[in-house]
Each structure stands twice: as C-alpha cells, then as structure tokens.
Amino acid sequence: xxxxxxxxxxxxYPDTANYGQLINVQCRPGFYRASDSLTAKVSYPVTADGLxxxxxxxxxxxxxxxxxxxxxxxxxxxxTMLKTDLKIPHVKPYxxxxxxxxxxxxxxxxxNCSRGYVSYTNLSSVRSSVACGQNWIDKTxxxxxxxxxxxxxxxxxxxxxxxxxKCKQAGYFFEDRQFDKIIKCDLSNGSxxxxxxxxxxxxxxxxxxxINCKPVSCLSDTLMxxxxxxxxxxKTKSFKNNVTIEFGNGTRVTVEAAAVNIPDEYPYASVIAFxxxxxxDTGVGEPIAYCKSDGTWNITQLPSCIRxxxx
Length: 311
Known about the structure:
The protein is mainly β. The protein has four domains: 10-74, no CATH class; 76-154, Complement Module, domain 1, CATH 2.10.70; 164-215, no CATH class; 217-310, no CATH class. It has three helices and 26 strands. It has helices spanning 205-208, 220-223, 230-236; strands at 10-13, 22-27, 31-32, 55-58, 64-66, 73-74, 76-78, 102-104, 108-112, 117-119, 127-134, 142-145, 152-154, 164-165, 172-174, 181-187, 195-200, 213-215, 217-219, 242-246, 252-256, 265-267, 271-273, 280-281, 288-290, 306-307. It has a four-stranded antiparallel beta sheet with strand order 1-2-4-5, with no helix packed on it. A four-stranded antiparallel beta sheet has the order 21-20-23-25, with no helix packed on it. A three-stranded antiparallel beta sheet has the order 9-11-12, with no helix packed on it. A hairpin with a 5-residue loop joins strand 4 and strand 5 (64-66). Keywords: Disulfide bond, Sushi.
C-alpha cells in the first residue's frame, strides 16, 4: 500500500507500507504540530492495537489502523520585530525591503552589507539574504536565518597577522622610538569585497620587516635643546657647572652640566641630578631628570633656580 498525504504539511516515513509495517506520520520541514511545542500538554492514549499518536499499521488486506494523526501547521517568521526588537547587524538600512509583516518558511529578502562587510555565504558579493527558517529546538517557532542574523561578515585580510606588533623583549622599542606598530584590515583600493593590510599611526608597511628594536632610551635634546647654547642655558638657570649622572646599572659619573646633551640618548632608568648654585634654589628641591620606561623624561624641561633672597 502506498500512502498519500491526507493533511497539509504531513509526510509518511516510509511512504510505501507492506503488511505488518509500522508507519510514522511526521510534519515536513517548515511545519509543526501541537505536540511539538516545548510547553505542550497534549497527550493521546495508546490504541488497543498498541499504536501511539501519529502512527499507522498496515494489515494484510491493504487496510490500516491508526491513532490520532495531528494536523501540521505552517510556521511563520515575524518581520516586524526586525524593525523594533531585533536589528540585522552590519547592513545598510533595510526596512524598505520588508514587504510583509510575516514570512513563510524558506521565504527570504535581500539586504546590502555595510562598507567593509560581504555576504556570509558569498564572499564575492556585498548583497546577502535573510530567510525564514525553523528553530531546531522548538519546531513551532519560526527563526530568521542565518543564526544571530549575521548575514554579513567582515572582509578579511590574508594572511592573518597581528594587529599590534611590539618588540619581543621588555624594555625595548623600535628605532623610531615607537612601542607599537599598528596595522588594520581595510578594503583594497576600488574594491568592496577584498581586504588589505594598511599601516596606521605612522606605521609604514614597507619598512616593517627591516625595522629593528633597541633598548628604551630618552633623548638628551628634550632636557637641553641643541638649538640653544648649553653654557648660557646653565648660567641662565643658575645651575652649578657639574651634574651627577647615575645609570640603571648603578654606574655614577660627574660631568659638566653643559655637556649633558652631547650624548644623543640616555638609557632607561638614567638619573641626571642638577644642582642650583649656593645662592639659589628651585623652591621645591634640586631638579632631577629621570628616564622613564616609556622613553620620556619625568620633566618636560629643566626648571630655573631662583635667587634665595627673592623668595
């Protein structure tokens, strides 16, 4: 005996029955019956023949016995929620393409991806579709597909690279005194579907492979600009002629204050102690310059000493 659909959305498995064979009646994809609900309280008794709901038994004479065969109802997806409660991410305004408040199973509509995004299913297109599907847990519910409405995905760059590039060793930075080389994935020139890596915040991709790292240091010119006469600057600020320099390894030397800017750089943790003349002070203690771990001094410029009698 061959079974045919007796109700909208119903299908039989298998659809051809032989004597003594038990047939299960089920709903086609996109349909559901009342007992499919997670909160359903529908219960049907087993027949005298031992048949449960939605089962058919084939007899030798071609007739069959059955229990209750539930009606299959079509599911629908609510489109109005896409304008209010839900929003499709990474797409241009799409409200105008929603031509109906409800969509049936497999019905779909097309959206345009935002700049930098392409179709999740077709990486060569900036147009993508959203379709009405069926929730696999609760078959009574329509569910917009793809899951989480991520129909558009970001354009990707190949090969995958770190976005932030740093020196491997702590206490080191690049030759141009930057700690980070920042690159980001952007659209290739004239393209909406392919990406390329570009340097930002001064990062030059052409030099990235050849640039070297060096220990963190501070520029002496920051404390004592070479555009001015060092001896005159020391005298104007009422400093003593000599300063004490202590390096991070504990080494200490005394040099002429006017010679502080002769080395271009001082290693991290270097301390340069200036002293005011006997007849003056800064009012807040002796000026001390300390090279910090970020490659800058703790002071932006040397303070001036003031004659004590004027305080």
